[in-house]
Amino acid sequence: MYFKKTLPLQPITAEIMVFSSLTFLFAFIPLCFLLHLVVKHNVFRNMILVLFSLVFYAWGEPIWIFLLLFTSFFNYGFGLEIDKRKHSKSIIPLVILAVSVNLGLLIIFKYGGFIWDNLNHLFPMPFARPTNTLPIGISFYTFQAISYLIDVKRGRVSPQRNPLYFLMYISFFPQLVAGPIVRYELVAKAIERRKIDWNDVSAGINRFCFGLLKKVLIANIAGELVAKYLDANLGSLACAEAWFGILMFSVQLYFDFSGYSDMAIGLARMFGFKLEENFRHPYAAISCGDFYRRWHISLGKFFRDYVYIPLGGNRRHHALNIFIVWSLTGIWHGANWNFLLWGMYFGIFMIIEKHLKTVLDRTPYLIRHIYTLFLTIFSWSIFYFTDFGKLKSFIINLFYSNHSTNPQFYADLWEHTFWFGLVIILCIPWDEIFPDSSRIHVRSVRFYNRLAPVTNAVILLLSTALLVGSTYNPFIYFRF
């Protein structure tokens, strides 16, 4: 196996449109929503959403719009053909062919360079190395297309016969480039017929603004601290600084991705679509299995329904199935060995927990939570460093270092004291502590709804002020 440093996916440098950009906030989404509101017929509403989705996707990298269109129309046609042959013996080869084409495109564009590097290390390759350029969102819309084909084959959904509507399902801009991975059955009715519900619009705006807060006021600030401590000279880090750096990456990764998911869910609801939750307070988990059920839920459900259960699930080869699913989960995140190692890391602990379930169930809640939090935060070091040499140095620094703590470290702790408090508050699963039926929950929701217009305005103003004065505004999961 080739463990030399491989080239990671190149960061997206084109001026792609992100939800937290000023162009999106003050031009794209107001215009799109206004036109969608004015038009009454669903056909024209869908045309507007398709047009804006294609503009959104093509904003920074227009060349990849042809790949998106090919994926859409290829799967539209195969969906109809699979439905037509539902009771024929030829349906299995047809489904295998369609899924293979989708996975083939994903492998070529996402993993081509990685595969070439490793094969070239074993014997010289007769052709040039493929480019590292990654079409944004390909991992997400490819999985959506595959889920659609398999669900049509299983009879869970009827195929979409309008190519425009199917293109809207694949290209819908709220979840196009970074998820969540949306099942067709969840949005099929809304695509065909939906009405503007002002309660949904209001709830969608609230959710979008909450996601914007998580992205701009939490993830971006955490990201600057990550760059300061993890992109510096690792050999000079003290233990406390190393743990602080990876803790900040844990914060950045969660709030970046969950913030994007919140904004996607909020935007979709404004247009009449109700998407499933993609995160449920993962840092409140009390086991690796619990973390898996709370983190990137749409990806976990995809692998459960289309890989884990077909392999046998809990019925046969249970441990092997878990290991395969988590290895795939790891490599899905990127074309590098560290992502595979990260997935295998979680897969091993999932298997251990299955065999020690009785012991784990008897362990006090706090100990289980600390155990899970430690394993999760440590795992992000594997996730962060694509260079195994740097990963080794960093892990050593986590547990042993000859260097004393830099005074600037204490200054950073003091400067961000109130920010740390906000991070902790937003990580606590308040909805689980106070369920919907509780008096505190009911009163809190009522109080929040009254303050929502003011709160949203404050979030928008603060976010705008931070975005105007900053050039740092990435979305981490755009690379996946």
Summarize the model shown.
By secondary structure, the protein is mainly alpha-helical. The chain is 70% helix and 0% strand.
Description:
The longest helix is centred in the middle third of the chain and has 33 residues, at 198-230. This protein is globular. It has 480 residues and is mostly helical. 37% of the residues are buried. Helices cover 70% and strands 0% of the residues. Helix 9 packs antiparallel against helix 10. The chain is built from 21 helices and no strands.
Which tags fit this structure?
mainly alpha; 70% helix; disordered N terminus
Strand coverage percent: under 5%
Poorly predicted ranges (pLDDT <50, ≥5 residues)?
A: 1-14
- Largest sheet entry: none
Please tell me how large the radius of gyration is. 23 Å
N-to-C SSE string, H for helix and E for strand: HHHHHHHHHHHHHHHHHHHHH
Q: What coarse outline follows from CA principal-axis ratios?
A: globular
Range of helix content: over 70%
**Count of alpha/pi helices:** 21
